[in-house]
Write the structure tokens for this entry.
Amino acid sequence: MAQLNSNIPAGPLAQKWENHKFSSKLINPANKRKYKVIVVGAGLAGSSASATLAELGYQVENFVFHDSPRRAHSIAAQGGVNAAKNYQNDGDSVRRLFYDTIKGGDFRSREANVHRLAEVSVNIIDQCTAQGVPFAREYGGMLDNRSFGGAQVSRTFYARGQTGQQLLLGAYSALCRQIGLGSVKSHTHSEMLDLVVVDGHAKGIIVRNLRTGEVTRHAADAVVLATGGYGNVFNLSTYARGSNTTAIWRAYKRGACFANPCYTQIHPTCIPVSGDYQSKLTLMSESLRNDGRIWAPKNKGDRRSPQEIPEEERDYYLERKYPSFGNLAPRDIASRAAKQVCDEGRGVGESGLGVYLDFSDAIARLGEDKIRERYGNLFSIYREITNEDAYKTPMRIYPAVHYTMGGLWVDYNLMSNLPGLFVLGEANFSDHGANRLGASALMQGLADGYFVLPATIATYLALQDTGKRPKTEHPAFKDAELNTMADIKRMLDCKGGRTPAAFHKQLGKIMWEYCGMARSEAGLKKALQLLPQLREEYSKDLRVTGSTSTLNQSLEQAGRVVDFIELGELLCRDALAREESCGGHFREEHQEDGECKRDDDRFAHVAAWEYTGAGQTPVRNVEPLVYEEVKMATRSYK
Amino acid sequence: MKVRLKVWRQSNPGTPGAFEEHETPDINPNMSFLEMLDVVNEDLASKGQEPIAFDHDCREGICGTCSLVIDGKPHGPHQGVATCQTYMRSFSDGDMITVEPFRAAPFPIIRDLVVDRKAFDRIMQAGGFISVRTGNAPDANAIPVPKIAADLAMDAAQCIGCGACVAACKNASAMLFVSAKVSHLGLLPQGQPERQRRVLAMVEAMDKEGFGACTVTGSCEAVCPKEISLDFISRMNRDYGRSLLQGEPGRKAGASDEA
């Protein structure tokens, strides 16, 4: 069994982080230069961590599979970033942001981590502003805010509908500065294919150059994974096509525990699926729910156009069911409510899988110009995709996979149970519990990279002797490289009949059908029969064209898809074992009037899965969630 | 509907490429251009042929990865969108569509339609930043920024770094890309201390990469998926001229004082 010590500092909640920073080890500047840190990924967490560690004096090597660090999918986040600045004087505070986040996560996150996140949120806004992130301003020159789901204060900072882009370009510019100074070595088109573990510590990675096919070994004193979430296990999602689970999955297979894989987020406002050929789903920012009203016809099978449906025959179901939060109910709740409406036969659009997001009241109140200023780019995206004008007719929206709260298990220092392996951002599991609130992913990615890891990594590094850092000639590196090469050869030699994309599509269908918005024991058991079969078919019937010595996108995809198939099985296993409903994990057997019914007696814990070998049942380790200050309560947004 | 593709195939940077013709399987007008290529690639793979390599990632017009020249125009027929936001309903049944990579000497072809745009990263590394270490920022509201300046900075900052401006330019000039970053940072009070060294360093890096001169034909603005204005080029020219005259001789951006 893995040892899971969360290392939560002692003392009152509000002082834990300060105390912890004081008691953490320091490394003097002359010695920092001797340490080498590998960072995989260059999204918000990876870029900010790489830049900050380099500023501190460490030797940093950054690896991305993209052609440039600026392409990471953090760039697509639209709505905003939360911070407890209370610039609006509306009663916000660190404590309130902390509480909203814990409650939004349905009391399944770690109290101390979430409090720290709320504390450093204010520093994030300062840092990004100083870097030149052009946040929205009021005429007086001060920063503007808007509201997001799950909160009754306005604490979301934004840059039009492109906040993720601007924050990422800020972190990328900090990274560029360090690359220019020679303190970060940047490896692009470089995909991590294995983690190298020496004497129980993470000491390096195996990388394939996607342009030349060359496989290389890289050693360091610590390895940081900031490689994002695994939502593409569903194939269709709002993730970028390249987003994958390979880095964290292969670390899992080397001994890092995978925590709460079943906590996946379905975002309520996406453009509905239009056909079988579709390669991705597009999000319409949650910020739209500030001014848009969500409704469906009251009558089943009402096929009239939205304008023909009179006010009294419309059901503004979120406002009806959750009068105090209304259209700003958290994502998991809003998504399930949309599914219920469509299951009842009241969905709209050709497929019947959609509800309306209507701006006509807001346009009447504020004028079309104001709405255009706030959401213009989102309305144009909607128009490009659907060929419809949302200023004139309501948008049609439907939930889609958007984020994964689960990820590799980490302690308070963001270190996994494998010493020397640190995991940041969406790739870890720690801060969002069973559901993430809007505008909190950007906050967490930057908190981890700018402020948390740079303070906590020294505690580990100080105990490492840089003179004894394993060389890449060490047998562990050689074995890992040989394994990687053998995997690649197997995929190319298989010469079966089906492409990686075909397998991915089939996997997505199984996952969405049996492990999507609603999950049941019977469905999950069915999925646990189908997925091993799919894995088996994959190993026999895969077809990858081309060779390994040039750019080969089919080969890249093949390696990622097999990891998704294996992860899908773990996800279903976790969902089956968690016999309760909480946040994004909804078990049909455990509900009360359609709302989640948690079971705190049996499941107030983190499930951290430990790999035990190919074909073996993984071990479910448990980290109890101990709440020192907050009382677990039934979430109510009514 | 079905279309015919005349598509550039090149197996590696060192081998000459050529156009190849393919007829697509039956496609849906609501597919995106890249989804159409997905379908063509599945068809090729099923025949044992190598799929067409093309760059893509977010498929929602923000990451800047996709990069095709469609019928002679970077990012295809529509204004203000990237290739991934181009839909097949913009074409007619039976059309012959020519698909090429972004062509420019500083963007060497890696394979088929995929080009190497690292030159952009190197320009950014030369000076596309504000030198502020993590932790030494003042309160975000300590320096008020006029809304007009913030909005204009945002107009420039939304550049996605795709390189369509270079591909469209007869001289392969990168002025629109560089001027967007210079203007974004130069318009904000936080960017003032390094304003002069930034523009000098970035222009020097741009020239070193082999991008051509700007003759203000405006083809870059016409194809920019974010409709970044040509005005930023004049803004950068003014900044550059002033910096040359007043400049900081012997200084290079990126050579930091605190090292």
